Amino acid sequence: MCKIVTPVVTVFDENEKPDYEGNKKVIDFLIEGGVDGILVLGSSGEFTGLTKQEKHDFFKFYADYTAGRTKLYAGTGSLNFEDTVALSNEVNEMGYEGAMVIGPCYYALDQEKIFVYYDTLAKAVKGNLYIYNFPARSGHSIAPETLKKLVENNANIKGLKDSVSEPNHTNELMLAVEGHEFEMFSGFDDQFLYNLTSGGVGCIGALSNIVPEIWSDLVKSTKEKDFDRVMALSELTHELMPLYDLDSNFSLLFKKLMQHRGVEIEDRAIFPYNQMEESVYKKAEILLDKVIKKYQKLK
């Protein structure tokens, strides 16, 4: 098994509310690009700017508009535990593959508290649950023994997205859940191949918002064991990694680059991330065009 799931950007209107027509264009662009699934309201989706009701409505919109054309995952994490439970149950009823939840931030969590949080959540959610491990944002990282205990005690914990700078952590997690059906995703695009060799299933990588065709080609080539092409395509995703570091909120930049690729959407972000130097965008545009030209020569 090998797949790319897009942590999709959210298109906003002038009031910083979801622009449904614009988001339809994003959905169509990704599906036509061949991605295997979409994660709605993950980090790339700027979920922190929406109320619980707005999140519910947006999840429902995605379920209705995609209409089974691709698999859906929902980022339901919230500082309010009851909201997290409610949204997680709601998306499972809507037909999502599962809810993906980052742990509570601000207050520190040790491993016992991480276990209690996800164990309590899993027992309250009547559907599939995916853990989102992103220590740079949450302030904590799940340990292998904690994950092992969670999976052994909760059959509905189906997988994890591991956004870590040290990929060996992913390998240690996979060893801990050996013998269980478990979907391990890399959260960083350049760890895709390492994830697979660790027993994972692929990547939830935001670069697929911009170049879904490169990512779907990489997945296809991996399945077909065309290793020369796999290496060439992997090099292209690595070349694009600097895009993440050009702005504090890369989602705005990615929306601008999607515009550059012909997706007719607004390029607003949530407050206060709407400012960007033109020089930053131009630098990103040059890099993207360079990579796309290289990809076209591979065909």
From TrEMBL:
Example of a GO biological process term: N-acetylneuraminate catabolic process
Keywords: Lyase, Schiff base
PROSITE patterns documented for this protein: DHDPS_2
Short name of any one Pfam family annotated for the protein: DHDPS
UniProt-annotated binding residues for pyruvate: 204
GO CC terms, sorted: cytosol
SUPFAM superfamilies per the UniProt record, alphabetical: Aldolase (SSF51569)
One GO MF term attached to the UniProt entry: N-acetylneuraminate lyase activity
Active site location: 132, 161
Keyword Lyase: yes
Family statement drawn from the similarity comment of this UniProt entry: Belongs to the DapA family.
Protein's name according to its UniProt entry: Dihydrodipicolinate synthase family protein
Organism, scientific name: Coprococcus comes
Species classification: Bacteria, Bacillati, Bacillota, Clostridia, Lachnospirales
